[in-house]
Design brief:
The protein is mostly helical. It has one domain: Orthogonal Bundle (Arc Repressor Mutant, subunit A). Helix content is 51%, strand content 0%. The protein has helices at residues 21-30, 37-53, 59-70, 77-83, 88-95. The longest helix has 17 residues, at 37-53. 25% of the residues are buried.
């Protein structure tokens, strides 16, 4: 478990290298999310996107990336909203230990 100082005022990790599956569980619990295999698939996809492009994806690029990497049935906003209600890109990135996407509120 990380201390509160490990996070910024919005709950995003300050040090991306501090992320682990246990940290993801802690972050997900704070969002009221119980992580399933479907969540982990998206979390690792988000981390892959960040490694590839050195940026956290906003919603539209995330949907396109999911469709390309996981297939059209998972590359839909509704699918991502079912996993990460409210703002899939922002909440998914937070749980994946990534910076907040540039144009997310």
């Amino acid at each position: 478990m990380l201390t509160q100082s490990a996070f910024d005022k919005e709950g995003f990790l300050r040090d991306l290298d501090a992320w682990s599956p246990a940290v993801a569980e802690q972050l997900a619990a704070a969002e009221g999310i119980s992580l399933s295999a479907a969540h982990w698939e998206i979390l690792y996809l988000l981390r892959d996107y960040y490694q590839r492009y050195d940026a956290s994806p906003a919603m539209r690029p995330l949907v396109k990336y999911c469709a390309r990497e996981l297939g059209p049935e998972k590359g839909k906003s509704l699918y991502l909203l079912s996993l990460f209600p409210g703002s899939p890109a922002r909440i998914g990135c937070k749980i994946a230990g990534l910076p907040k996407p540039e144009n997310c509120l």
